[in-house]
């Protein structure tokens, strides 16, 4: 895949020109709400595609600058690859400039550009002072060495230069992992007339394609991706770094909300107790007390809860990093390493931020031993490093895995053995490794897919193997899917029937709703005997749905319950076999068409296809005007 996908975020104080700059860059006004137009402020996140000279695909997120809408701001920048810090030339650094910069730093954003807007409103001397003011503010942050670009969005002055700087910066930013498990934190939910529920969000990792079976967490609701759009353009696939809107089947608008997460795998924890590494801001107005009430922002989720310290009863704002625990009022979806922001609900202020050490925290005793334990967790045990890597990469050789986790050979080998002993790791004959939960997850997805197929097409032998694996290959390596499939066949969970795959417990059968009408069809075939009426006439009288008309015919032929004389006539096996046995008993080793007519008393309309079918079954062989019985083949067939 040659294309690279990135998401750029705007940040900065209210009325510093973020939305106007977005329009200057993309020709799209991201303020779409009536209230936004009336108040001339951004309330919700705005999105627009940015076209650059290269093949890079960029989405721009315009976030609200007002302090009341900080939740939307955090949700918007949580998944970005590069940020533009917007400061207007006529006002300089303002309170939300500082808070946004703090939040960006705490979220671990590494790449940025400082954009000074409204430059036509000030003279050269004031512009220099503003630049110095901004430089002092970003000193010691990730923006310390960031390029400055000066623009006026209304006259388009500096816009082309800004696009060039964006392109240059993105050339050094690695694209997101499209191989990992799909994850999209949802930030918008709405309905489209005639289509149903649609969710929007930035794809954090992995890839998605139409038809994928996904899960909404923390609700554990299974859904199907019915349609996918990227910036209002229909797409079959979406990749990490893209902004996507997904039409979901299987859920109502009320069944999903902002903060939920759409995933393709079960390896995300749904939890209300998380161990975290928290870095505080230096200028907190008020200390944070033990079990103080907090508001957690993680991805697009906003959840209230309490903070629990293990080495203090009060936290001062001095920029220290503290290992502690968050006990939340409702569950969230997260995993180790996810970044978060912590705010105080009242009086409102940003406390700090950090990353998740363990999404499945437990109750610990107050004291230094707990802090030491959390420090060990932060570093990660060899087992955790191995499992975290395999959750991401899914399927690696031992050599590749050891390179990823950077462990000494003895420690690595011991850890692998421990995981195998606990039945948490599976190794193939070729030496490739997969976590048992991931293997079981694929088996479950395969089984679920086949169960749905059998329910929809009960007359069919199974589903084409290529189609079964195709639906999963966006989220799992094909080699892993092939291994899982073959092992599931060996374990008799699945069965292989030629090119088709089925659940081992499944046998083709008449669907309950239409069983009587199908039995009626078989009854008419039985009454017709060897000179049966045309299939279309019989099936037409049964008034079966078109899908089942063709499926029933193939079911009867495939299961050898019937044979096809030609495209128009099929005859039940018992009548055909009886006729063949009668013919064989009353003819010589060689016989002609007239001999068969004398025995069977069939018209040419039925006799010629009858004889040609004998040839196709390899029971007879034609030599000029005569046919010869193949005695051994006939005996095998008649007794089968």
What are the main properties of this structure?
640 residues; alpha+beta; Transl_elong_SelB; GTP-binding; 34 strands; Rossmann fold; elongated; 35% helix; Elongation Factor Tu (Ef-tu), domain 3; 6-stranded mixed β-sheet; Beta-barrel_SelB; 6-stranded antiparallel barrel; cytoplasm; single chain; 5 domains
List the helices and strands and how they pair.
Blueprint: E1 4-12, H1 18-26, H2 34-39, E2 46-51, E3 56-62, H3 70-77, E4 82-88, H4 95-106, E5 112-117, H5 124-138, E6 148-150, H6 159-170, E7 183-192, E8 196-202, E9 207-209, E10 213-217, E11 221-230, E12 233-235, E13 237-239, E14 243-249, E15 261-263, E16 269-280, E17 288-289, E18 293-298, E19 301-308, E20 314-315, E21 321-334, E22 339-344, E23 349-358, H7 368-379, H8 382-393, E24 396-397, H9 398-405, H10 409-421, E25 425-427, E26 432-435, H11 436-456, E27 463-464, H12 465-470, H13 478-490, E28 494-497, E29 500-503, H14 515-528, H15 535-542, H16 546-558, E30 562-564, E31 570-572, H17 573-585, E32 590-592, H18 593-600, H19 604-616, E33 620-623, E34 626-629, H20 631-638
Parallel strand pairs: 1-3, 1-4, 4-5, 5-6
Antiparallel strand pairs: 2-3, 7-8, 7-15, 8-14, 9-13, 10-11, 10-15, 11-12, 11-14, 16-21, 16-23, 17-20, 18-19, 18-22, 19-21, 22-23, 24-26, 25-26, 27-29, 28-29, 30-31, 32-34, 33-34
Q: Kindly state the number of beta strands.
A: 34
Mean pLDDT comes to 85
Radius of gyration: 34 Å
Structural class: alpha+beta
Spatial sequence of strands, sheet with the most strands: 2-3-1-4-5-6
Number of domains: 5
What gap, in angstroms, lies between the N and C termini? 53 Å
Q: Unreliable stretches, pLDDT < 50, 5 or more residues? A: 31-43
Highest-level CATH class of the largest domain: Alpha Beta
Q: Main β-sheet, in a few words?
A: 6 strands, mixed
Output the number of helix runs. 20
User: What is the CATH homologous superfamily assignment of the largest domain?
Assistant: P-loop containing nucleotide triphosphate hydrolases
CATH topology of the largest domain: Rossmann fold
Could you estimate the helical fraction of the residues in percent? 25-40%
Residue share in β-strands: 25-35%
Global geometry: elongated
CATH architecture of the largest domain: 3-Layer(aba) Sandwich
């Amino acid at each position: 895949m040659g294309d690279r996908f990135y998401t750029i975020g705007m940040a900065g104080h209210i009325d510093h020109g973020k939305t106007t700059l977005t329009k200057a860059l993309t020709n799209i006004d991201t303020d779409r709400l009536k209230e936004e137009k009336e108040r001339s402020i951004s309330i919700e996140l705005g999105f627009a595609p940015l076209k650059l000279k290269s093949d890079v695909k960029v989405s721009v997120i315009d976030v609200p600058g007002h302090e009341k809408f900080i939740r939307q701001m955090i949700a918007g920048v949580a998944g970005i690859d590069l940020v533009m810090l917007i400061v207007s030339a006529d006002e300089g650094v303002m309170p939300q400039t500082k808070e946004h910069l703090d939040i960006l730093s705490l979220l671990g954003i590494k790449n940025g550009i400082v954009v000074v807007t409204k430059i036509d409103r000030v003279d050269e001397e004031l512009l220099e002072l503003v630049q110095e003011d901004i430089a002092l503010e970003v000193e010691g942050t990730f923006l310390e060495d960031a390029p400055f670009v000066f623009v006026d969005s209304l006259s388009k002055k500096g816009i082309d230069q800004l696009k060039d700087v964006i392109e240059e910066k993105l050339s050094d930013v690695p694209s997101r992992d499209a191989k990992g498990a799909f994850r999209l934190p949802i930030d918008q939910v709405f309905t489209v007339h005639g289509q149903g529920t649609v969710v929007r969000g930035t794809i954090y990792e992995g890839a998605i394609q139409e038809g994928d079976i996904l899960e909404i967490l923390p609700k554990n609701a299974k859904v199907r991706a019915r349609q996918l759009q990227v910036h209002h353009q229909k797409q079959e696939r979406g990749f990490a770094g893209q902004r996507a809107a997904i039409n979901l089947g299987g859920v109502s608008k009320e069944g999903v909300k902002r903060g939920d997460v759409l995933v393709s795998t079960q390896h995300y924890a749904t939890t209300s107790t998380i161990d975290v590494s928290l870095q505080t801001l230096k200028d907190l107005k008020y200390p944070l007390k033990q079990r103080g009430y907090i508001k957690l922002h993680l991805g697009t989720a906003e959840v209230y809860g309490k903070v629990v310290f293990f080495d203090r009863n009060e936290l001062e704002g001095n920029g220290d990093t503290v290992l502690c625990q968050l006990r939340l009022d409702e569950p969230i979806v997260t995993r180790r390493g996810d970044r978060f922001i912590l705010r105080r609900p009242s009086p409102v202020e940003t406390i700090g931020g950090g990353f998740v050490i363990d999404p499945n925290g437990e109750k610990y005793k107050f004291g230094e031993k707990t802090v030491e334990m959390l420090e060990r967790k932060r570093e990660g045990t060899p087992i955790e490093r191995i499992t975290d890597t395999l959750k991401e990469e899914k399927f690696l050789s031992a050599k590749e895995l050891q390179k990823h986790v950077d462990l000494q050979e003895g420690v690595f080998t011991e850890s692998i053995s421990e995981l195998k002993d606990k039945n948490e790791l599976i190794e193939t004959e070729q030496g490739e490794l997969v976590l048992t939960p991931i293997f079981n997850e694929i088996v479950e997805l395969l089984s679920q897919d086949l169960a749905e197929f059998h329910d929809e097409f009960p007359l069919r032998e199974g589903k084409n193997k290529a189609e079964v694996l195709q639906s999963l290959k966006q989220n799992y390596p094909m080699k892993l899917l092939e291994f899982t499939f073959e092992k599931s066949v060996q374990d008799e969970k699945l069965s292989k029937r030629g090119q088709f795959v089925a659940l081992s417990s499944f046998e083709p059968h008449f669907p309950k709703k239409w069983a009587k009408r199908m039995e009626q069809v078989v009854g008419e075939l039985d009454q017709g005997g060897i000179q049966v009426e045309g299939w279309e006439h019989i099936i037409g009288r049964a008034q079966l749905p078109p899908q089942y008309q063709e499926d029933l015919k193939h079911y009867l032929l495939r299961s050898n319950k019937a044979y096809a004389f030609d495209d128009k006539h099929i005859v039940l096996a018992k009548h055909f076999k009886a006729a063949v046995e009668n013919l064989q008993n009353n003819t010589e080793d060689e016989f002609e068409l007239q001999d068969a007519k004398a025995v069977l008393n069939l018209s040419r309309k039925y006799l010629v296809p009858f004889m040609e079918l004998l040839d196709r079954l390899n029971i007879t062989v034609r030599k000029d005007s005569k046919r010869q019985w193949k005695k051994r083949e006939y005996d095998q067939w008649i007794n089968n």
